[in-house]
Amino acid sequence: MAKVENMDEATARVEAALYSAGRPLRIEDLIRASGTESRTKTLDVLNNLMKKTKSAFKALEVVILPDGSYVFQLKPEYSATVKRYASKPILPNATLKTLSYIAYRQPISSKELVETRGSGVYAHLKELRQLDFITHQNVGRLKIYSTTEKFQKYFGIQGDVENLKQRLFSKVRKTASMRQTAPAPQIATELN
After folding, report:
1. Cis peptide before 185 (omega within 30 of 0)
2. Within a domain: 189
3. Are residues 175 and 119 in the same domain?
4. Domain check: are 68 and 106 in the same one?
5. H/E run at residue 126
6. CB–CB of 54/64 below 8 Å?
7. Nearest to 156 by CA among 84, 78, 91
């Protein structure tokens, strides 16, 4: 690919990459997308893009995640508003339930996860680790899982683990009361 010298073209390429990816991108990916072959120029493009996005959009943002990757996303406070319009969730329901269970019970062992969620949990754990939503520590032969800062940022969760657990518990209570009053509602498993 030919090196791009025009900064408007580099900006358009970074915008297109962030928009179409639908997930966080590493700076190396964005350098390739920009065509500048320059970390400095790509960081300048990203900083300008973040400023422009902040002034031009009310519900959208370009942010740097704790792992240093960049994402073009809906601001967390608007996720409930547009939930019904979203086409495909980032995680299948079974994986999302595993993530919710980890978030509520953390720190939690792989043994307890398998006992509760079944052997399919291994595939869920792999996917959640790839997304950097969970981390683990080895304790002997067991792995102990907990959520990451990226998980909290992605789902718009502020505060400590106890605050998160309280929010999850209130969601479960609300869902249980909805089940008693409505015929066969769909169980809400999302955190927001």
Report:
1. no
2. no
3. yes
4. no
5. helix 121-130
6. no
7. 78
